[in-house]
Design goal:
Layout lengths: L2 E4 L6 E4 L5 E4 L8 E4 L9 H8 L4 H14 L22 E3 L2 E3 L5 E3 L5 E3 L4 E3 L4 E6 L2 E3 L4 E2 L1 E2 L2 E2 L1 E6 L1 E3 L6 E2 L10 E3 L4 E3 L3 E2 L8 E6 L3 E3 L3 E2 L11 E6 L4 E3 L3 E2 L10 E6 L3 E3 L3 E2 L9 E6 L3 E3 L3 E2 L11 E6 L3 E3 L8 E4 L4 E2 L2 E2 L4 E6 L3 E3 L3 E4 L11 E6 L3 E3 L2 E3 L11 E6 L3 E3 L4 E3 L9 E6 L3 E3 L2 E3 L11 E11 L2 E4 L5 E11 L4 E4 L5 E12 L4 E3 L6 E6 L7 E2 L2 E3 L3 E4 L38 H5 L17 E6 L4 E6 L8 E6 L2 E6 L15 E3 L3 E3 L13 E6 L4 E6 L11 E10 L3 E5 L16 H13 L5 H4 L9 H11 L22 E10 L5 E3 L7 E5 L1
Parallel strand pairs: 5-8, 6-9, 7-10, 8-11, 9-12, 10-15, 11-19, 12-20, 15-21, 19-22, 20-23, 21-24, 22-25, 23-26, 24-27, 25-28, 26-29, 27-30, 28-31, 29-32, 30-33, 31-34, 32-35, 33-38, 34-39, 35-40, 38-41, 39-42, 40-43, 41-44, 42-45, 43-46, 44-47, 45-48, 46-49, 47-50, 48-50, 49-51, 50-52, 51-53, ...
Antiparallel strand pairs: 1-2, 3-4, 13-14, 16-17, 16-18, 36-37, 60-61, 62-63, 64-65, 66-67, 68-70
Helix pairs in contact: 2-4, 4-6
Amino acid sequence: MLRSEPAEGDGGTRLSGLAPGRGWFAAPPSVPLMRVFMTTTNLEPFAESARAVLRGKSALAAALTAALLLMAVPAAAQTPVSSADDVCAPADNPCMIEDHIVLQAGAVLDFGVRGVVVTGNGLLDWDSNRASLLAGEVTVGGNGIDLAGGPDGGTATIEARRGCSDAPAQPCKETSECALGTCSLGTGNFTLTSPVLGVGRDIEADFTVDAAGDVRLQAKIDLHGKKRFSVGGYVTIYSAQGSVFVEDNIDLYSGAIEIGGEVILDAELDVRTDAEIRADGGDSGGGVVTVSAGRDILINRTIRADARDGAGDGDAIELSAGRDVIVTGLAVGNQTVLHVSGSGADGWGGYGGFVGVDAERDVRFGEHTRIEGTGAGPDGTGAEVDVFAGGELTFDGKIDVHGKGLEGEGGVISFDSVGDAVFGAGFSADLTGGEFDGGEFDLVGDADLVFDGDVVLLASGDGSGGPVDFEVAGRAVIDGTFSTNGFVVSLDFSACELEFGPNALLNNRALLGSNDLSVGRSLHLKAGSRVKADAGPGSNDFSYGDPRNPPLLEGTVAPEATIIYDQQQVICPVCGNGVVNQGETCDDGNLDDDDGCSADCQLEGCIDDTPGYPGVALCDDGSLCTNDVCNLDTESCDNEFLCDDGIDCTTDECVADVCVNTADTEFCDNGLYCDGPESCVLDVGCQVGAAPDCSDEFVCTDDVCDEAADTCTNDFIPGCTTTTTTTSTTTTTTTTTTTMTTTTTLPPVLCGDANGDGEVKVTDALAILRAAVMGGDCDPRACDVNNTGSVNTTDALIVLQASVGARDDLVCPSALPTTTSTLPIATGSSSTSTSSSTTSSTMAVATTTTTTTTTL
């Protein structure tokens, strides 16, 4: 930065500390203080002139002259670009962006399938505009992306595309966009290595990446709301054929009043987050985070969609995967937390939001993970948590959805697992509430269950604690604790086989509470286990469906249990009872093998069709592209191919467990030439082509498509004649000449007054200096103040001294030299005649010399 400092000897100022960017200039008391903005790189063409002016001058004159020189340098201006050709040459691949470019409003920078690399000092500046950049592989480094355009944020869309195998120049993100081939040329990757900044003040910024390949966010995206009434921004990341990796923070939190932002991460393959995502909001509520993957989701860091100010409600975090959802944490002090809590203010309490997890295969929450969706005081309700696992479910983290206030209410937690479910000793769920009751805990399991965690559903004041409902088709081993209170509350556990371990505790302190245990095959309460209900009207009711296995009660049951045999109860598969229960494909009334129905009640024909059974699920062929079922009618496996799109002209394949449908025009060819070439269009089928145009645009030929010869014929029509009439025009032009003499008298001027405002000031010195250094017009009668015959930097210095009263000896030339110019001037007339046979034209041109004399 330039700074003014006292100069030795003359009491003036001098400049020091030149640095890139901006600087300040301080003048002596007689000159107003001026703020100077400059770009140091722009000074290079004028450096020598500046040095020449400064040599031998006084400190005062040198400082002022240097300041004038700096002021003479114009600031660099950015011209908005509207097309790819404004950025780089059409042949550049990749296009290297090394400078600051501003995208014009509505611009579409389409680079086809060429790559784009932002590097060096490059910056993609959307300002507050809505614009798009379309290219092949895109890498954004340099100074990144700027969406902060004044009060409004910009709206940016970036597409990273591949090319079609049948047409390499045809951009695509999915094979359906290619006419014949597949979308497979190039990577279509998007990589962010420098930040995206778009801090919103009034209107939020919007950033979208739509890529064919992988998306790697290795730098921060910051679109948070800056002011109290600013909404968080929007980030949407798609990968049509690849994965999404979040490796640096995404900040979309709002101001204190408004709603949080929204994040969408959607990938055909995997989504992995190794950095924090913030979409929390203020009094208007939290934001929304949605993560979808065709394969796996791996969440390694915290996600926030809660409300942190006012009385806002938490919003939603939703995870949906075609295979597994895995949430991990690093340590006790560095947990991965899914936040959807509400906030309270002014006597109002915000609600907790929603956390949804849906996986076609496994769901795993590690030890150092937590779901936090509390309802704020005084009356907020806790969040809803809904988890579905199409495979196995493992949960070792914690869930907190309690209502914090006196009038609060606990949330709802629901688990649904097709495979085995395991809740480790580190699992805990807090669903406590106030006077408006505790929450509700539900679990449905189609296989076996191990539960060692702790669930609290208590209520305070006059509230009633929450219920528990477990339905397990297989064997359930409970060695954890469940606590509730209030009035009429039931803790229900049903399973094929139910075992309570030595640490198990059902503590139902509700006044009319009941513990209901139902089993199809066996119930075993081991020594040390405790099942407790209120000593007064509370109850313990145990029912079983297998007369050979009455309940075995070695633990503590208080009050004494009521034992009920229910022969209608079918809670689990009972192989050999002659009834096909859940999980069975047959039941012939015995437990013998080699009779068509195995000892585990599976059709042996389907077992024969399943290599590796029972280690491999019945009829599972190992492909995600098939629907695998045991056909009870044919007693064999049906592995329905799911990739058939029903279009006759496509080839349907399963590639790496992903369905690929490729259009093949050969299936559409009907062998005819004259109806044009047929084509195959994905999702549509065969389409007729355009018939060939056989016209030669000559009226005397018969234009016919010859199907036998696969060509067009244009035979001459006998006797056909044509007549052509041509009209010509003759034009004669006569030109006369004129001689003109012009005399001009220029107005008088004040010597030194370069800008003509009637006064000699610092601005006149600036104008003379600019003309001397950069070139330009400056009337010698005002600018040549030492009457040397030329305008130079010495004239500027003399005028500067005169403007501050240091001298008054300005002498300018009194007149300009006479100038002569030649100017042809013509006047005349013309006549036109028309003939039907010939065309001719003549033109006579005369010139004249005009002498212009200027008298001063």
